[in-house]
Amino acid sequence: MSAAAAVALAAALLVWVPSGATRRERLRAVAPAPASRGRWRPQVPGGPPGTGRRWAEAGAAAAGVFLLLGGGPGAALAGACVGAGLERLLRRSGAPPDPGSRLALDLPVACDLIAVCLTAGTPVGSALAAVGDAVSGPLGERLVEVGSLYRLGAAPRRAWSGSPPPLDVLGRTLVRAGESGSAVVPALQRLAADLRSSARSETEAAVRRAGVWVLAPLGLCFLPAFLCLGVVPLVLGIAADVFG
To answer: 61: which residues sit within 8 A by CB, 6+ positions away?
Structure first.
């Protein structure tokens, strides 16, 4: 088996590896842990919990690919690629979720709900507190905090100070509308539409990047054949005509 085919197989194995939660559920179904023992979570000096297990699984995958391909330089290269890629994938799956992404996901709905409350005549502080109670996660907690500051008489800029992105965009919209006297409901509706459009653009860009990475193993397999069967004979023929 050629080195290109080995690398293509390694890329396919990386794509096939399930996420961290799915992988753990499959492992529990195959070999459930005894009730008297806890999960093996080795501590590596200078590294986060689970680093030893992550590298052990990556090394086992690399050795399996090496044995599956029958040894040799190509198999060693494929095994190294699989091990490094699997370790990186496991590290990403075990990382804590980004609070900013959760805020960006829930913020358009929160803007619509705040606009509905303000349309009904609810004060800004009460609207923020009501929406914060309805929205779970860090966004709801922050909205409840800002709404409490509003109802205690804090200035809008003081209430929104220290808000993390992208929640600061909502704060600037409400503060600007309150200071200029403009209608705040249309501004909130435009903000929700802009946030949804931005999220849609990011999703489409991620889908396009995924399409490029999916086609990469196919190009890696066909490029050596194209060079050997198409380019090399042409170059040799031209060289024979010139130097012959």
So the answer is: 13, 79, 82, 83, 86
- Would you kindly state where each structural domain of the chain is located, as residue ranges? 1-96, 99-199
What's the rounded Cα separation, in Å, for the pair 142 and 128? 9
When mean pLDDT is compared across 6-10, 67-71, 145-149, 240-244, the lowest value belongs to: 6-10
Regarding pTM above 0.85, the answer is no
Please name the fold of domain 99-199: Receptor-associated Protein (1.20.81)
Q: Identify the residue whose tokens are 């800029």.
A: 157
Residue 34 has pLDDT above 70, yes or no: no
pLDDT at 158 over 70: yes
DSSP secondary structure letters along 34-99: PTTS-------TTS-TTHHHHHHHHHHHHHHHHHHTTSSHHHHHHHHHHHHHHHHHHHHHTSPPPH
